Amino acid sequence: MTPQDQQDPTDRTGLLYGFAAYAMWGLVPLFWPLLEPAGAVEILAHRMVWSLAAVGLVLLVLRRWSWVRPLLRQPGRLGMIALAATVISVNWGLYIWGVNSGHVVETALGYFINPLVSIAFGVLLLRERLRPAQWAAVGVGAVAVGVLSVGYGKLPWIALTLALSFATYSLAKKRIGLGGLESLAAETAVQFLPALGFLLWLGAHGGSTFASEGAGHAALLASCGFVTALPLICFGAAAVRLPLSVIGMLQYVAPTFQFVLGLAVFHESMPPERWAGFALVWLALALLTWDALSTARRGRRELAAAAARAAVLSATAAATTETDASDATDASDATDACDALDACDASDALDASDALDASDAAPGTGAAEAAVPDTRPGPISGV
Fold first, then answer.
1. For 39, which DSSP code?
2. The dihedral of CA 282, 288, 294, 296: what is its sign?
3. In whole angstroms, what is the distance from residue 115 CA to residue 284 CA?
4. Strands (E), the chain
């Protein structure tokens, strides 16, 4: 049985970890405005620097460094890490700017349509074949983008850029093949020197807010690392306890929280055209979820049927083995019986021969001689 088979979709600890991870990602729009008057680029640079410090500390506590040396000997994976670091930098920077510029709802839209973009990447780049429900979801998503473009008066470029950058990042991480913490450590190691150089340059030119806005502001900027690492740690704990189908459904928690925050906290407008566009996006996601659950149920049924067939074949093989052993035992018993019978016949013949010898030697046994003819060779006669 594989670890995936042992995962329980109702595991309470896994569900708590998963919900905590996506809830933190969903509530993070409340954090970025706290870092003002720092600009989006300065916040991004601090996030890169302090994320490496936070993740490095976690790996040091866990003593998980064995992956570093093999990675350094693989230029191809290092190139993919550089690509992942680049696209996630774009994603992080645009997300911070979008939240602090009053586009929380559109950033939420980006993560709602991200699964649809990932599916499109699978078809275009990995030559994957889609099921009918997936094709329908992609089609509905494309219509939704058109409706939202009408509602915004332009393409929702923030949402599309977030979705494209994160889908590219996911594809790169799939090729890298590292765990969440290890991958983030490698990516932030690539980001560290440029980010630190920018912060030093900014401070030298009097543009840094790290030292000029007080200790509280500096502490908030430094906490960017833990804001980045903590949900990732919770996600890793959930991923080893829950099936992928459950993780896939939990991923909608984050953009849902962001969407609600955009309406209830940041008071962004939602004209009817945007509601229609979001409704189409949610319909596409419902189709994807239904298809994923149906496929998972079908897979479990097929697995159960295969296990039942294997059990029947195993039982049949065991019964056949027992039958062969029983036949062999019966044959052995029959052989023993035959051997015993032959022994009895030989014993009887020997007893008869002894009786004949005794009758010849004893006087006055004419009756015995008449009854048992003498078949032994005698003297040659002249008659």
1. -
2. negative
3. 10
4. none
Residue 168 identity (one-letter amino acid): T
pTM for the structure as a whole? 0.77
Q: Name which of 73, 169, 47, 166 is nearest 114 in CA terms.
A: 166
99-133 pLDDT per residue, tens: 999 999 999 999 999 999 988 888 888 888 889 99
| Rounded CA separation 288/344 (Å) | 83
User: What helix, strand, coil percent values describe the chain, rounded to 5?
Assistant: 80, 0, 20
Count other C-beta atoms under 10 Å from residue 95's C-beta.
26
Please choose, from the candidates 95, 167, 111, 121, the residue with its C-alpha nearest in 3D space to the C-alpha of residue 281.
111
Residue 360 pLDDT exceeds 50: no
DSSP designation for 32: G
CA dist 291 and 274 (Å) reads 26
C-alpha dist (Å) from residue 62 to 159, 173, 179, 182, 269: 36, 22, 13, 11, 46
- The maximal CA–CA distance of the chain, rounded, in angstroms, is 154
Residue type at position 105: V
The answer to whether 231 and 21 are in contact (CB under 8 A) is yes
Average pLDDT over residues 150-168: 93
The dihedral through the CA atoms of 187, 193, 195, 196 has a sign that is positive
Judged on CB neighbours under 10 Å (0-12, 13-18, 19+), 19 is: middle
Q: What percent of the chain is modeled with pLDDT above 90?
A: 56
CB 179 within 8 A of CB 236: yes
